[in-house]
């Protein structure tokens, strides 16, 4: 029975009470948990290919004689477990950090309200400032108002401390290789259906340490799979003296270190007389000490404390409380109450006699939502399928089928070993004289003859010999049946685990794509509960890391967080009241489902690329991101940007078409104007030409008329002139010149 967990009064009583609880918990190793721990050891051995051949003597021995074949373990289970672990390892471990305490949530809500207010008032800000004659101040937090505020606050916005915690956890994951630690825990989950961690502050960093499920005992009710519900937990470790001194160097006294060093010098024979049940506490190698058993226990103690209640004038329904020391003397008119709170205690036992750290835990954490009635242990774990106190793991699911598989393979090997072709039944009485049996075998094998002599003296075969008999030792039809049985067992394992050939990438090459995807989807649903339990546990581990981060990091100025491929970030931690006064929760995304969703989004993006809805660079970005949500955001932004660009291009095309139409109309107008002017000019020219023609004809007719008149006058004048002035015979040249001038004038 576990002693009463109510903390007694008095230092000596408390120490004795803690040691009694530790010893009571330790007894569970040899009583209640024996069956469960034995099953876990067998599961690990079976997974690693180690089997107890004594359990299979009913198969391998015939009437006390061994058969000519070997029974070995074939790793059909290992392949299935490696697939489960490999899927998780190949997926990124993405998580979100959220503030969960009421004050922080209200602050975040206020910021959301301010964003909405700024979005509504921004179009009228300048006008309102002019009307009111005051400046309304800067926009909320200097943020650019997002288009969809609700979506932004739920998916993108982070408080400063949320950003610090997010980057801090990422730093720890990369620095200490936490994914490898969680991978080992996933193996534990698949093999034993249990997974345990202890989360402490080590070297000023909050870190988890994986614990072998075979070394844990706990107090968890049936049908409860959360280790945090335990009243007590204990961990057994086998440690070397050097490991003990290194881990507990701040708690060991000089005489304790000398005692441990002296243990290494004693031979095994001296331990039996020096210690009771020495082999329960010590392990030996070559007659010398190799490891010491170390048991650490934690439990939730109930402590009664004094509390002074004071009036809260700002909120009378929520008075102030102040914790008082046990020796506090009550003053007049003070309202002093006694309440019970949870306090986590621990104790470590090294070997049979040495006790360390018998005290309240250094790493107790509380939360606003818990009050003082709940304080979790340093151990975080999960017991999957904890029905009636009996767990059932993946290895338990496959173990019996795997045993039949090994027996089937043993019988196949046995048939192959017995196979020797056909044999001849030969009576040694038929050996010819002067020959030995080896000679007969030689002649039969090399020359194809078996010599006998029926006429030899004493032979009884002269008249009765017919032929030799033969026996067929070739492989029988049972081999085909065993091979079919082997294949049936393989399909049975796939059926009961849900890990089919399509899931393992070994499906038929000619199978339709839709059929393969349906088989993978159905298989994923079967194993979804396994991954879900693992993710829930990691959330609890990392949430406790954030609780311890407040103790380890709050108030420190700066850290350089090298985050591997994502680059280096300088994180300036906020003051203690900003970081340590908030409560955080870690939410890990289902990486397996998330990666399948991401692949679906990438496939859709490829179709969008072919349709011209996104750019090639956007598709590359989607391939490189870790989560489906990030890929979805890139796809959404790319489609919106493409649609906006298309709209702008269409708008520009319409504007260009309108400008072209206007320019064409203007040019056509100018053309019409020019044509109209040309037509007017041609009409005017034609009119003038017509008038000119008429006038010319009139002038011509008038000229001809005048010429005729003038010609007659001129003729008369010329004759008179010649006769009267020059004389016709004396100046003929002058008369000709005058006639030429007259003709030109005409």
SSE blueprint:
Layout: H1 11-26, H2 34-47, H3 57-60, E1 61-62, E2 65-66, H4 76-89, E3 95-99, H5 102-121, H6 125-132, H7 149-155, H8 160-175, H9 178-192, E4 194-202, E5 205-211, E6 216-218, E7 232-239, H10 241-247, H11 254-263, H12 271-274, H13 278-281, E8 282-285, E9 288-310, E10 320-324, E11 335-350, E12 354-360, E13 379-383, H14 394-418, E14 422-425, H15 437-446, E15 469-472, H16 478-497, H17 513-553, E16 558-562, E17 568-572, H18 576-579, E18 584-588, H19 591-610, H20 616-624, H21 628-726, H22 732-745
Antiparallel strand pairs: 1-2, 3-18, 4-5, 4-13, 6-7, 7-9, 8-9, 9-10, 9-11, 11-12, 14-15, 16-17
What's the short version?
The chain has 746 residues and is an alpha+beta fold. The chain has 22 helices and 18 strands. Among the domains are: 1-6 and 231-376, no CATH class; 424-474, no CATH class; 628-745.
Please provide a written account of the structure.
51% of the residues lie in helices and 16% in strands. It has 746 residues and is α+β, with helices and mostly antiparallel strands. Among the domains are: 1-6 and 231-376, no CATH class; 424-474, no CATH class; 628-745. The strands form 6 sheets. Strands 6, 7, 8, 9, 10, 11 and 12 form a 7-stranded antiparallel β-sheet that branches. Strands 5-4-13 form a 3-stranded antiparallel β-sheet. A two-stranded antiparallel sheet has the order 1-2. Helix 4 (76-89) packs antiparallel against helix 9, helix 14 packs antiparallel against helix 16 (478-497) and helix 20 packs antiparallel against helix 21 (628-726). Residues 563-570 and 573-577 have low confidence and may be disordered.
């Amino acid at each position: 029975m576990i002693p009463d967990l109510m903390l007694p009064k008095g230092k000596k009583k408390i120490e004795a009470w803690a040691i009694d609880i530790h010893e009571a918990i330790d007894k569970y190793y040899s009583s209640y948990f024996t069956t469960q721990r034995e099953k876990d050891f067998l599961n690990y051995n079976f997974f690693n290919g180690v089997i107890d051949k004594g359990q299979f003597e009913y198969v391998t021995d015939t009437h006390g004689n061994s058969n000519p074949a070997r029974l070995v373990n074939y790793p059909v289970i290992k392949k299935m477990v490696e697939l489960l672990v490999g899927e998780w390892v190949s997926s990124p471990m993405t998580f979100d950090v959220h503030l969960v305490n009421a004050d922080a949530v209200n602050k975040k809500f206020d910021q959301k309200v301010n964003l909405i207010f700024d979005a509504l008032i921004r179009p009228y800000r300048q006008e309102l400032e002019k009307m009111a004659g005051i400046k309304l101040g800067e926009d909320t937090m200097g943020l650019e108002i997002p288009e969809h505020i609700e979506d932004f606050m739920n998916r993108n916005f982070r408080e400063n401390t949320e950003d610090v915690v997010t980057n801090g956890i990422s730093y720890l994951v990369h620095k200490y290789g936490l994914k490898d630690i969680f991978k080992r825990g996933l193996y534990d989950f698949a093999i034993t259906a249990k997974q345990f961690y202890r989360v402490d502050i080590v070297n000023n960093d909050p870190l988890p340490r994986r614990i072998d499920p075979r070394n844990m005992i706990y107090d968890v009710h049936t049908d409860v799979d959360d280790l945090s519900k335990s009243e007590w937990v204990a961990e057994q470790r086998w440690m070397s003296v050097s490991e003990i001194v290194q881990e507990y160097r701040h708690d060991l006294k000089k005489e304790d270190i000398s005692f441990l060093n002296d243990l290494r010098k004693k031979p095994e024979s001296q331990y039996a007389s020096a210690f009771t049940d020495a082999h329960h506490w010590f392990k030996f190698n070559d007659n010398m000490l190799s490891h010491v058993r170390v048991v650490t226990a934690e439990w939730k103690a109930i402590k009664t404390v004094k509390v002074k209640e004071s009036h809260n004038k700002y909120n009378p329904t929520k008075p102030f409380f102040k914790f008082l020391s046990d020796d506090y003397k009550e003053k007049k008119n003070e309202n002093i109450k006694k309440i019970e709170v949870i306090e986590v205690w621990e104790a470590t036992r090294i070997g049979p006699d040495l006790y360390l750290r018998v005290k309240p835990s250094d790493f107790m954490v509380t939360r606003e939502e818990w009050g003082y009635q709940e304080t979790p242990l340093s151990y975080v774990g999960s017991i999957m399928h904890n029905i009636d106190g009996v767990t059932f793991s993946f290895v338990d699911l496959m173990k019996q089928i795997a045993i039949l598989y090994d027996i089937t393979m043993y019988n196949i090997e046995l048939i192959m070993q017995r196979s020797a072709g056909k044999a001849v039944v030969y009576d040694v009485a038929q050996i010819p004289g002067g020959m030995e049996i080896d000679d007969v075998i030689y002649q039969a094998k090399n020359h194809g003859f078996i010599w006998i002599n029926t006429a030899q003296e004493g032979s009884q075969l002269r008249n009765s010999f017919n032929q030799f008999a033969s026996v067929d030792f070739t492989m029988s039809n049972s081999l085909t049946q065993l091979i079919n049985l082997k294949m049936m067992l393989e399909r049975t394992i796939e059926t009961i685990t849900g890990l089919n050939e399509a899931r393992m990438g070994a499906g038929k090459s000619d199978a339709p794509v839709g059929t393969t995807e349906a088989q993978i989807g159905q298989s994923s649903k079967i194993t979804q509960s396994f991954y879900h339990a693992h993710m829930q546990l990691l959330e609890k581990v990392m949430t406790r890391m954030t609780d311890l981060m407040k103790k380890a990091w709050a108030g420190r100025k700066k850290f350089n967080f090298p985050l591997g491929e994502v680059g280096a970030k300088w994180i300036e931690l906020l003051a203690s009241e900003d970081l340590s006064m908030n409560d955080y929760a870690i939410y890990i995304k289902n990486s397996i489902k998330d990666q399948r969703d991401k692949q679906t989004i990438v496939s859709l993006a490829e179709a969008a690329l072919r349709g011209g809805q996104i750019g090639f660079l956007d598709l590359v970005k989607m391939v490189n991101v870790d989560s489906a949500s990030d890929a979805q955001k890139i796809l959404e932004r790319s489609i919106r940007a493409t649609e906006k660009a298309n709209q702008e291009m269409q708008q520009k095309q319409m504007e260009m078409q309108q400008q072209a139409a206007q320019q064409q109309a203007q040019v056509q107008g100018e053309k019409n104007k020019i044509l109209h002017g040309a037509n007017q000019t041609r009409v005017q020219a034609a009119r003038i030409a017509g008038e000119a023609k008429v006038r010319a004809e009139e002038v011509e007719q008038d000229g001809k008329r005048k010429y005729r008149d003038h010609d007659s006058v001129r003729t008369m004048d010329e004759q008179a002139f010649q006769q009267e002035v020059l004389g016709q015979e004396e100046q003929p040249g002058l008369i000709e010149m005058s006639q030429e001038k007259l003709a030109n004038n005409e």
